[in-house]
């Protein structure tokens, strides 16, 4: 599949300290979302975790976090950061799509941040299948999807229509909106989404109410 980044491609970015996608902090829309959250912590997974700003953010709030990344450099950096900050998380240096059956229906939350846009569009059905498999009934994806408006990648352009095409059949789309709270360099380019795993597949677009919901 042309355009698919290999493990070595991603690892090279860490070896050369070329992490242009990294904000250096938890993405502001996530911080704002959790400010209104009143539920308890559970199990979360962060695919393509990178240096793990969101992993540490969730761990600090009592979540049991599994962080997954293809590149050894990402896991090494996150491991050092967790140790320095006195936080714990399970770190897996592997392909997200190869998570074994021990992960099935295991997670309450999947946090999506720059992973869906990093994989080739041809791999997006595998992303949806894996997310649905590993989330518990009623589990949610809380994510930022990056609309680059450009051809090629990574990052690969992700439009609202792309999100609905891939997720509406097996997730209830509870929130899907361009967030005004993005970091400056991503302003106007991020779709904030809350997608709840549905037990009965819905028609495409049928779950998109356009209404925000209170975090669970």
Element layout with pairings:
Layout (H helix, E strand, L loop, with lengths): L6 H9 L12 H8 L7 E5 L5 H8 L3 E6 L2 H14 L4 E4 L13 E7 L10 H11 E12 L13 H8 L3 E8 L11 E8 L19
Parallel strand pairs: 1-2, 1-4, 2-3, 4-5
Antiparallel strand pairs: 5-7, 6-7
Plain-language structure description:
With 216 residues, the protein is α/β, with parallel strands linked by helices. It has one domain: Vaccinia Virus protein VP39 (Rossmann fold, 3-Layer(aba) Sandwich), CATH 3.40.50.150. Helix content is 27%, strand content 23%. The chain has six helices and seven strands; from the N terminus they run ααβαβαββαβαββ. It has helices spanning 7-15, 28-35, 53-60, 72-85, 124-134, 160-167; strands spanning 43-47, 64-69, 90-93, 107-113, 135-146, 171-178, 190-197. A seven-stranded mixed β-sheet has the order 3-2-1-4-5-7-6, sandwiched between helices. Helix 5 links the parallel strand 4 and strand 5. The longest helix is centred in the middle third of the chain and has 14 residues, at 72-85. It starts with 6 loop residues before the first helix and ends in a 19-residue tail after the last strand.
Q: What is the H-and-E element order?
A: HHEHEHEEHEHEE
Please state the structural category: alpha/beta
Could you tell me the radius of gyration in angstroms? 16 Å
Judging by the overall fold, what is the CATH architecture? 3-Layer(aba) Sandwich
The CATH class is identified as: Alpha Beta
| DSSP helical segment count | 6
Which regions have little confidence, pLDDT < 50, spanning 5+ residues? 202-216
How many β-strands, per DSSP? 7
Strand content is 15-25%
Q: Quote the distance from N terminus to C terminus.
A: 39 Å
Major beta-sheet overview: 7 strands, mixed
| Largest sheet: spatial strand order | 3-2-1-4-5-7-6
Annotated CATH homologous superfamily: Vaccinia Virus protein VP39
CATH topology: Rossmann fold
Helix content estimate:
25-40%
């Amino acid at each position: 599949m042309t355009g698919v980044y290999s493990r070595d491609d991603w690892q090279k970015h860490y070896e050369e300290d070329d992490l242009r996608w990294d904000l250096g902090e938890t993405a502001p829309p996530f911080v704002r979302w959790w400010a209104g959250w009143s539920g308890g912590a559970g199990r979360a997974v962060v695919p393509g975790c990178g240096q793990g700003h969101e992993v540490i953010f969730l761990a600090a709030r009592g979540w049991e976090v599994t962080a997954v990344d293809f590149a050894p450099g990402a896991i090494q950096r996150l491991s050092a950061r967790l140790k320095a900050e006195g936080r714990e998380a399970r770190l897996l240096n592997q392909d997200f799509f190869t998570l074994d059956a021990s992960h099935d229906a295991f997670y309450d939350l999947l946090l999506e941040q720059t992973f869906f846009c990093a994989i080739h569009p041809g791999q997006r059905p595998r992303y949806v299948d894996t997310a649905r498999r590993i989330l518990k009934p009623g589990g949610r994806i809380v994510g930022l999807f990056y609309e680059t408006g450009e051809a090629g990648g990574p990052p690969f352009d992700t439009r609202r229509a792309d999100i609905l095409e891939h997720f509406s059949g097996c997730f209830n789309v509870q929130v899907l909106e361009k967030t005004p709270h993005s970091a400056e360099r991503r302003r106007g380019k991020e779709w904030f989404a809350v997608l709840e795993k549905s037990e009965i597949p819905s028609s495409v677009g049928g779950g998109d109410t356009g209404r925000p919901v209170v975090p669970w």
